[in-house]
Design a protein that fits this description.
CATH topology: Lipocalin
Order of helices and strands: HEEEEEHEEEEE
Strand order of the largest sheet: 5-4-3-2-1-10-9-8-7-6
Largest sheet: 10 strands, antiparallel
CATH superfamily: Calycin beta-barrel core domain
Distance between the termini: 69 Å
């Protein structure tokens, strides 16, 4: 009798754990789907770069950003182009739910930073947080002297017709300094 009860409890526990794992995977995939539903489409950008030593008055610019869900909703792609002063940025970002860790992951490639577009860095270093209202991506990258810093991009105030994208930079753990603010308006 005790043996039957033990097998019953093991079976119930295993079933419960398997169900919980499937629910967690579905939840994370649903997070990516919710994010895709909010951001998909083309957006016009107003770019504001903060003052620096090279640009003491900051820089203003314009551009566009297009978000596309991938086949079966497995990925979400962000294509961004903008010009501000002499800088012309082209960026492609890829978001997905890692099936092993069940966490959102991100990879970006752009023409302004040689430290982007590394799959190993995307898996081991980048962190992605989506709380249903705000998307935050932290990406470690070395500064010109080789010291490790964090580039943080935050998409917030996401509405059907607009969102704000803010870029920060600083050492791991902060403090972070704002480097850019992008105001996005959905293209009609």
């Amino acid at each position: 009798m005790k043996l039957k009860l033990a097998f019953f409890l093991i079976g119930v526990t295993g079933s419960f754990l398997a169900t919980a794992q499937v629910q967690q995977q579905q939840s994370n995939s649903a997070d990516l789907q919710r994010l895709a539903n909010l951001l998909k489409g083309t957006w016009d950008l107003e770019v504001h770069l903060e003052p620096t030593a090279k640009a003491p008055k900051g820089m203003q610019g314009k551009g566009d950003e297009t978000w596309r869900p991938g086949p079966l909703g497995l990925t979400l792609t962000d294509e961004e182009n903008f010009s501000a002063g002499p800088m012309k940025l082209t960026l492609v970002g890829l978001f997905w739910t890692d099936k092993v860790t069940r966490k959102l992951q991100a990879l970006d490639c752009n023409n302004q930073n040689p430290h982007t577009c590394g799959l190993k860095d995307a898996l081991d270093g980048n962190t992605v947080q989506w709380d249903g209202q705000k998307l935050t991506v932290d990406e470690p990258e070395p500064d010109p002297s080789g010291k490790m810093m964090i580039s943080r991009i935050v998409w917030s105030d996401i509405k059907p017709s607009s969102f704000t994208e803010t870029g920060y930079y600083g050492p791991p753990g902060g403090p972070f300094e704002k480097g850019m603010t992008i105001l996005a308006t959905r293209r009609k």
